[in-house]
Amino acid sequence: MALAALVEEVRAHPVAAALELGSLALAVVLPVATVLALAGGPPPATGETGPAWLLVLGGGAALALLWTVVVPLYGRLR
């Protein structure tokens, strides 16, 4: 019964569901990516940053941008 209610909510608000599921996926992947980047060595203090660290930083920035800009904008326009 609870699964049917969840599916009904997703169908009623597909954009909100996509935002929340996307942020959940990013919140699960980001710590794993951080551990994998740390396994490759710490970020350099100066010089060029490796691609693993750029992905971690980009993912964190995307998550912050999602909840500070996209979600409030969606709530206002909805």
Number of H/I helices: 3
Residue stretches low in confidence (pLDDT < 50, at least 5 long) are none
* Structural category: mainly alpha
Mass-distribution shape? elongated
Task: Tell me the number of strands.
Answer: 0
- Report mean pLDDT, rounded to a whole number: 86
Strand coverage percent? under 5%
> What distance lies between the first and last C-alpha atoms, to the nearest angstrom?
28 Å
Helix content: over 70%
What does this structure look like?
This protein is an all-alpha fold and 78 residues long. It has one domain (2-41, 49-77). 82% of the residues lie in helices and 0% in strands. Helix 1 crosses helix 2 and helix 2 packs antiparallel against helix 3. The longest helix has 27 residues, at 51-77. The protein is elongated, with a radius of gyration of 17 Å.
Task: Please describe the structure with a list of short key phrases separated by commas or semicolons.
single chain, 78 residues, mainly alpha
